[in-house]
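Recap slide: DUF4974 domain-containing protein, sequence and predicted structure.
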Amino acid sequence: MEESIDILIVSYLKGEATCDQQKELLTWLELNEENRFYFRSIKDVYDLGRVESDIRDSQVERQWHKFLDKVFPVYSTNRWLEIGHILLRYAAVFAFGFICMQLISYFIEDKEAYSKVTKIETGVGERSKVSLPDGSIVWVNACSSICYDESFGKENRTIRMRGEAFFDVEKDPSKPFIVHTEPFTFRVTGTSFNVYAFDEEDEISFALIEGSVTAEKGTYMEKLRPGEVLVYDKTQAKISHRKLISSSYTAWRYGEMFFDKMTFEDLTRRLERNFNVKFKFENQKIKKESFGGSFRKYESLETIMKVISTSTPVKYRIEKDTVYIK
């Protein structure tokens, strides 16, 4: 299976994957974060062959040298490095694909040097405060995760995440702090910010508390200012901006749930992650009702629902781990 996935990924990166192959790859990527990290690692290696400049990353260069020694032991490394660059730039598609597949295969085999991953994941109702190797602090909200490889803090400061997390980043101009959460990349040097990016929700938000950050998505690039919130609507592929109401993006770290003009549907998703319940809507229209307010972590679901029902048209009943909305 691992070998067939490698071939599938390379076909996709070369633009040769059929529609069925693309669907198969997408299904595999959606299984878990490890698969997505594996894909990105291979893509990073593949992309190295598409640049015309010398290989600058020390870890990648060491692996490239080892790869050349393994595949072409008779010739000197420098000579084959030169030839490798020429091949990667000018060879026919078949030869290019062969070299890339050999290189990718070698990187996968040498996992000790390339792909040890640390993952921090929280469950329902859990929050975690994490100290990263570079001294940065991350608060990870319920049902969320962050992951990074062993080169973090040494050669780079790159993190992948899903869900919600608040970052307090140590300054290091020589190593920008990079957060990947599909489809965005955020680059900072030293700052504090909150990222909200759940796979099942229609919006991604990035709230900048202090410092500066560059948001990237494909060819789109924008520098944000403190007190600014970037919001991305997945359904419309549209970017908008809001003014930061600080407590709405930071209160969760202290066990407070803060809602400001939030639809009831979005509110229930947050309650699901905090109380391990499911909401069932018997009245679909109520999903778009707007709600504002705040609750403390020690307040029960029953108390919260009573408050909501007194200020909105929401009617409910709770049966075990399910909340029915009338």
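The longest strand covers residues 157-168.
The radius of gyration is 23 Å.
(End of recap.)
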